[in-house]
Amino acid sequence: MKDDNKNIIQLIIGFLTHDITDDELKQLDVWKKSTPENQAKFEQYESAWLKSKNLKVFQQIDIEKDWKCVHKQINKNKHPNNSLKRFSISVRKIAAVFIPILFIALSGLLYWNVPGFGRLSAFKSSTVIQSVTLPDGSKVTLNKYSKIIYPNNIATAASRDITLSGEAFFEVFHNKTPFKVETGDVMVQVLGTKFNIQEINSDIAVSVISGKVNVSTPHKQLKLTKGKRAICSNGLLIEEYGETENDIFWYSHQLRFKQANLIDICKELQKNFEEIKTVKINTNDLSTRVTTSFDNQNLKDILEELQIHFNKKLIFDGKTLTVSD
Q1: Rounded CA gap, 300 and 24, in Å?
Q2: PANTHER family given for it (predicted)?
Q3: Where in 84-211 does DSSP place strands (E)?
Q4: CA-CA distance, 52 to 320, in Å (whole number)?
Q5: pLDDT over 90 (residue 195)
Q6: 20 to 30 A Cα–Cα from 53, which one of 23, 158, 197, 297?
Q7: pTM confidence score
Q8: How far is CA 89 from the centre of its chain?
Q9: Alpha helices in 88-211 (DSSP H)
Q10: Which of 33-37, 225-229, 274-278 has the lowest mean pLDDT?
Q11: Would you call 212 exposed, middle or buried from its count of C-beta atoms within 10 A (0-12, 13-18, 19+)?
């Protein structure tokens, strides 16, 4: 798992490269304001980044000469008879010593942590669902506004490590190399399987469609098989059993229900159709259960069919889905 320091460094790099979300920016601001040391560290990285955009400044500075000058002045200050006024090195020359060092350190951070600067690549979706086939043959489909980061050598690496933000459906190419997906505090590890990971705010859901998956947090580990899901909320990892295929409705456009009552179905519809903001149940007769499925059907068609199954009125006004007798 990434430690807190590495997470902060990634937030700083995201800020410097203009690849940071509003929530991440808020996290960075909270961290900066928490202590003067954090603010100073951030300003140090920011200064090094800005200086690195114009490398000609390094060619105009004799670093060795400047350091000797600084060292000489420091030695002079060891004698009480010397006036502090003689220590008159300019800010620019002091920066000439430290900025290249910071630049080298930042370059290393960019190589190891920022996609496009070295060992990592990134793929992200915007307003539409998008898919990518990784160099190892695995296929990843990203829901809207999601992103993955993966190593360029994923096909030959000892471990296929991926970082996810948002939601994605993974169809992992089977081989002997572990395939790991990290999102927040949750790590998912497989060899070859199909599973979905959804990150909403601080909650994370892992749903297994086929195969076996290991899901772990710093405090707990679960082994999931087809039809099971793990939910991590407020640091607690729990296991659930249900229609996990419905968790990838955004990908498959299919819904499956087995002996489900109307409340369960309405909850599933609200989860998968973002236009449904609220659900109102104005009936006491909820004993009926049905087994049914919907393939590539719009909300209007689904509601019409459910009215027949349950002999109820299902009215959607654009925001609220109301069920009544």
Answers
A1: 38
A2: PERIPLASMIC SIGNAL SENSOR AND SIGMA FACTOR ACTIVATOR FECR-RELATED, PROTEIN FECR
A3: 120-124, 130-133, 139-142, 147-151, 160-165, 167-171, 179-183, 186-190, 194-200, 203-210
A4: 54
A5: yes
A6: 23
A7: 0.65
A8: 45
A9: 91-113
A10: 33-37
A11: middle
